[in-house]
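# step 3/5: fold
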Amino acid sequence: MTGIQKLNKILQVLLSNPIVEETTVDDWIVRRYANGKAEAFYTYTPTLSAINTQKGSMYCGANATRALPAGIFTKIYQVTTTFTHGGTGPSGVGIRSYDTTAIVWYVWAATSWASGQKATIGFRVEGTWK
């Protein structure tokens, strides 16, 4: 496949469902697609505090709520997260619940945390737009 053919293939995929609007609403980057799909992206960078347990150092954040941009979604069908940090061991972000107005989530880690640990949590919400 030539370079031109590859470029044409990429353009055909992109133009089959183009982004009709991209904007920032309440620190969320929001994309609306021609087929009715909507995506919203948010990056959160908390400072975590460690606690010591019998099994070692651990962090578990309580339920946190993040409002979704108002008036964007009619339905949410998926929320995914990424979690990066400087600690070691298993960790993640759990989603307790979500609807078209907010996400309820928590952070957990069984690791060699030190208080003041920086972390980055990325949220991606997919659904349909109004």
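# step 4/5: annotate
Residues 3-16 form the longest helix (14 residues).
# step 5/5: archive (pending)
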